[in-house]
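User: Second chain of the day. Same drill as before.
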Amino acid sequence: MLYFKSVVEISELHNIREVQYMAGHRYISSTERFLQDDIENLQEMIDNLHPINLLNEFSSLITGSRNIK
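Assistant: Same format as last time:
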């Protein structure tokens, strides 16, 4: 997990070829995989923390069903 986090943080400051070199990846696809995983984690965080989703969870607690789509 620490290695993944390091590669993602480096990618915020450098282009993908520089990140590939610093991470020691032979193929650019190895580096791209790290960045793709980070995008998927970001989407999951957005889904969990978006105000509409939080409102849905809150209203389902109160009414027992989901009201907002």
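The CA atoms of residues 51 and 57 lie 10 Å apart.

User: Great, on to the next one.
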